[in-house]
Amino acid sequence: MADLIAKSPLDGASITIGALTLAEFDAGRITSVAPLQGQEAALAKAFAPLGLAFPAPNRVSTGKDARLVWTSRGQAFLFGAAPAGLEAHAALTDQSDGWATLRLTGAGAAAALMRLVPLDLEAMAVEEAARAPLGHMQSILIRVEDGFEILVFRSMARTLWHEVETAMKSLAARAQI
Amino acid sequence: MRLTCPLCGPRDRREFYYYGAADYLNRPAGGDPAEWDAYLHLRDNPAGQTRDLWYHETGCAQWLLVTRDTVTHSISDVALVAAGGASGGGIAAKVKPEGSA
C-alpha cells in the first residue's frame, strides 16, 4: 500500500499575540471509546495497564502516555495510545483525522476563550473537560496547565482559527488602551 | 435562561434545541388511528407545570426531559431521557371519547 503523507488541518500553524499563543498540536491517535453494555468492569481492567480509568462527566483521566477524555454519555476519547485489547469491551472508532486540535496558552487564555464560549472557564480546573459551543461550532475543551486545548471538527479548523485569533487581537488591543 | 444538564452542568439556552411536548416519548404500540391521532396532534396547553423535550445540541448530545412552569418560567427538573426520564400517563389518556366534537 502506498505510504501517504498525512496533512494536519492547519499545517502546524502558530501565532502569538500579546501574552497568548495559539498553535496547532499533534494529539496523536484519537479513538472514540463507547463501552458495550455490561462490559464496564472488563473495560476498566483493560484500561488499567495504561494507567487510565473511564472518566466521569467533564473529566479527564491521565495515564502514562495516554489520556481519556469524557465526551458524552457512555463515550470518551482516547488520545495517544492505540486501543489495543479494548475491542471486546467497547465500540471503537478511529477519529484521528476528524478533528482539528489547537492549544491556546498564556495569561488570559480563559478571558480570550470566554469571548466565544458561554462557560465560566476561569473556574475550570486542570483535568477538566467540557463539550461546549464555540461560536456556533461544537467543540471539546480540555483545561491544561497553561491554557486550553480546543478540538473542533476538521472541516471547521480555519473558522476556529479565525474566531480565536479575532478574540486574541481584541483582547490585546484593549490592554493597550 | 439556563438549563442544568444532568451531565454537563448549568448551560446557556443557546446550547439546546427545543423539540416539543414530552408526549413524543409515549409512542403508541398498536395501530389504533385514534391513538395515533392523539399522539401526533393532541397537546395540552397548561398554565402551570409542563414537560417537554430539549436536545443538548452543542453539549453532550443527549435528549433531556425538562419540567418547567409556563406561568413563573421556573425550571424544576431536568432529567436524561436515556436514564428512564419518560413518564407514565401515556397518550391514551388524551384520546377523544367516542362521539365528542
UniProtKB/TrEMBL annotation, chain A:
Gene3D superfamilies linked to this entry: Probable tRNA modification gtpase trme, domain 1
SUPFAM superfamilies the record matches: Folate-binding domain (SSF103025)
Superkingdom, taxonomy of origin: Bacteria
Protein name, entry field: Sarcosine oxidase subunit gamma
Organism for this UniProt entry: Szabonella alba
UniProtKB/TrEMBL annotation, chain B:
InterPro entries: SoxD, SoxD_sf
Gene3D superfamilies: Folate-binding superfamily
GO molecular function: sarcosine oxidase activity
Pfam families, alphabetized: SoxD
One annotated GO biological process: tetrahydrofolate metabolic process
Domain of life: Bacteria
Transmembrane segments: none
Full protein name: Sarcosine oxidase subunit delta
Source organism (scientific name): Szabonella alba
Lineage: Bacteria, Pseudomonadati, Pseudomonadota, Alphaproteobacteria, Rhodobacterales
